[in-house]
Amino acid sequence: MRARTATIMISVALLAGCAPTQQDYDAIVTLLQGSARARNQFVNDCSKGFDANERRNAGIVINVSDKDAPRIACQRYLAAALSGRATYQDLLDIKAHRFTPKLIKIFQGR
Predict the structure, then answer these.
(1) Separation CA 46–CA 101 (nearest Å)
(2) CA separation (Å) from 80 to 25, 57, 63, 88?
(3) Cα(81)–Cα(74) distance, rounded to whole angstroms?
(4) Do residues 74 and 42 touch, judged by C-beta distance below 8 A?
(5) What's the Cα-to-Cα distance from 108 to each of 29, 32, 74, 93, 105, rounded to whole Å?
(6) Is it the case that residue 10 has pLDDT exceeding 60?
(7) What are the pLDDT digits (tens) for 72-90?
(8) What pLDDT is attached to residue 16?
(9) Cβ pair 9, 28 in contact under 8 A
(10) Which end is more exposed in the chain, N or C (fewer Cβ atoms within 10 Å of the end residue's Cβ)?
């Protein structure tokens, strides 16, 4: 239950435009590293937060169909966060709509 609560908190934070603190981000990444169920829930919750415009833009960047773009974008960001490639600062950049070359490469799977 605790894993689901934390996963929902980060998903809501990501989707609502607010970002967790650095400490919360680190704790959530640690939680996600150890729980396949939490990772699946994160991707499911994250994918639901894309509107039509965001789906279209993500599809263009990722080079997949608009329908598949949210799930793939969430999976790629999650993989990068778990590996340490995506940082707390990257999350803040996403929330501020500052898509850096690093973030574009992450979303493109490069």
Answers:
(1) 22
(2) 13, 20, 18, 11
(3) 10
(4) yes
(5) 21, 22, 11, 17, 5
(6) no
(7) 999 999 999 999 999 999 9
(8) 45
(9) yes
(10) N
Q: What residue has token string 């509107």?
A: 51
The predicted pLDDT at position 15 comes to 46
Instruction: For 27-72, write each residue's pLDDT tens digit.
Output: 989 999 999 999 999 999 999 988 999 999 999 999 999 999 999 9
Q: Which of 41, 16, 15, 38 is nearest to 27 (CA)?
A: 38
29 Rama sector, left if φ>0, alpha if ψ -120 to 50, beta otherwise: alpha
Q: How crowded is residue 100: how many other Cβ atoms within 10 Å of its Cβ?
A: 12
d(CA 100, CA 45): 24
Question: Sign of dihedral through CA atoms 95, 97, 103, 108?
Answer: positive
SS3 of residue 67 by DSSP: coil
